[in-house]
Amino acid sequence: DALPIFVDKILNDLINSEECEEHFRESYRKSLYWKNALRQYMEQFELSFKDLSDKMSKLGCNKHEITIRSWLDEDSHIVGPRELETFYAIAIITEDKYLLKDPEGFCEACNQVRSMRIRILKYIGFSIIKSFGDTSGTDEYLEKLIGEASEFATTLQIENIMQTNELFVPSYFANRPHEL
Questions:
Q1: What is the distance, to the nearest Å, from the Cα of residue 80 to the centroid of all Cα atoms in its chain?
Q2: φ and ψ at 157, to 5 degrees?
Q3: Residue 84: what are its φ and ψ, rounded to 5°?
Q4: Distance, CA of 72 to CA of 168 (rounded, Å)
Q5: Is the CB of residue 113 less than 8 Å from the CB of residue 31?
Q6: C-alpha 154 chain-centroid distance
Q7: pTM for this one?
């Protein structure tokens, strides 16, 4: 899917722009730091995702190994866990001095980056709608930084709507344009 990659590109452009506030740059760094600390810990002690899941459970933070794998997957666009107690558990397990010093800050940083990713997605949607003539709703900050985002989208037209009463559509095909 190209959209998450496009959001990453916009986010990187934002981080490298003069308009970006230093506070957000720091949040972005923290959103990457905790992942690297956890990956390095796993590599250093040759732990599997299951091992890490078990360690987290012992601290009262039940996270499935698949969840942890998705956090650390390079191709995943997951910013981080949403729960503060998860950051406490990661800090305790890794014994990372920066994570131990400020788990709340790392949680808040991930929330801010996640919020910006959502804001970018909404801006892309508004830009596409705006390209059809609706001028309401825009984000001046992102518009200044990105410009017209609709140029990166492909407009498709629905040719036919079929009755689907007896048709099974896998969830990964639903609400996406596909040739039938």
A1: 8
A2: -120, 135
A3: -60, -40
A4: 33
A5: yes
A6: 23
A7: 0.80
CA distance 16 to 33: 17
Q: What is the pLDDT along the chain (180 residues), one digit of tens a residue?
A: 577 788 888 899 899 998 899 999 999 999 999 999 999 999 999 999 999 999 999 999 999 999 999 999 988 889 999 999 999 999 999 999 999 999 999 999 999 999 999 998 888 888 877 777 766 667 777 777 777 776 666 677 778 887 767 777 777 666 666 554
How does DSSP classify residue 96?
-
Contact by Cβ (8 Å): 108, 84: no
* Burial readout 122-161 (b: 16 or more C-beta within 10 A, e: otherwise): ebbebbbebeeeeeeeebeebeebbeebbebeeeeeeeee
Question: At 45, which amino acid appears?
Answer: F
